[in-house]
Amino acid sequence: MKCLVAVLVCVVLAEGINVPLTRHKSMRESLREKGIELPYQDPAIKYRPEFATAAYMYINNYADTTYYGAISIGTPPQSFQVLFDTGSSNLWVNSVYCNTQACNTHKKFNPQQSSTFTAKGQSFYLPYGAGSLYGTFGYDTFAVSNIVIPKQEVGLSTNEPGRTFAVAKFDGILGLAYPSISAGGETPVMDNMITHKLLDANLFAFYLSRDGREGSVLSFGTVDTSMYRGDIYWTPVTSESYWQIGVEGFQINGQETGWCSRGCQSVVDTGTSMLTAPGQFMSGIMQAIGAQENDNGMFMVDCNQVNNMPTFYFVLSGVPLPLSPSAYIIQYYQNGQEYCYVGITPTYLPSSEPLWIFGDVFLREYYSVYDRTNNRVGFAAAV
Question: Is 85 designated active site?
Answer without folding.
Answer: yes
